[in-house]
Specification:
Layout: E1 7-13, H1 20-33, E2 38-45, H2 51-61, E3 65-70, H3 76-86, E4 91-95, H4 106-113, E5 118-123, H5 130-147, E6 158-162, H6 163-166, H7 179-189, E7 194-199, H8 208-213, H9 217-236
Parallel strand pairs: 1-2, 1-4, 2-3, 5-7
Antiparallel strand pairs: 4-6, 5-6
Helix pairs in contact: 5-9
Amino acid sequence: MATKNSISVFFPAYNEESNIKRTISLAIKELESLDTDYEVIIVDDGSVDKTGLIADALAAKNKRIKVIHHSPNRGYGGALIAGFYSSKKDLIIFTDGDGQFDFGEVVKFIQLIINNDLVIGYRANRAEGLPRVLLAQALRFWDLIFFGIWFKDIDCAFKMIKRSSLAKLPRLKTNTAMISTELLVKAKRAGLKISEVPVSHFPDQGDKNRRERGAHPKIILRAVKGTVDLWLSLRSN
């Protein structure tokens, strides 16, 4: 499949030494099959394992790969912000560096982006435990109550946006996981056309402790605080 649009792909990564090489290799294989101009950006968000070293080694072998290093860790939102505003191509797509998504499904996004500004994935079958699923459902209701938006899977880490459309939005600022909510709220307010698409989802093969932290009470409280902070920020603007 060929596309006339150039593509920037970025991967936020934190302690992904066991996944990042495979994730990048599979993405590049798919991008090469598209016969288009592309770049790959790895955002090493303050990893304390070998993620940064592996990313640098990949970039040294392929001029299309760029690496951004954060020190210290800026948080998931901070990693996404770095990726969004470092991307130089027509289309910007991101997915996490843990390999939980099939990058081959990027063709669905390319097909839909033709008539849309933003295409967001939703996990057809979430490969996560019940606590994470319940937390995601709670986020949907929080976003409906606080921001008046409703999507099938707000925090799905597989999204594509036209760079020209991103430029129409007020700059993203949220360093927490509420970055997805901020993006969608600002996109809706700007009148961007948004489409949703189902994507496959696979178990996280990374650090077990990291996976379990997602449903930790402290993380949940942080998400609640993040919701309030974002609401206040958007209201003031």
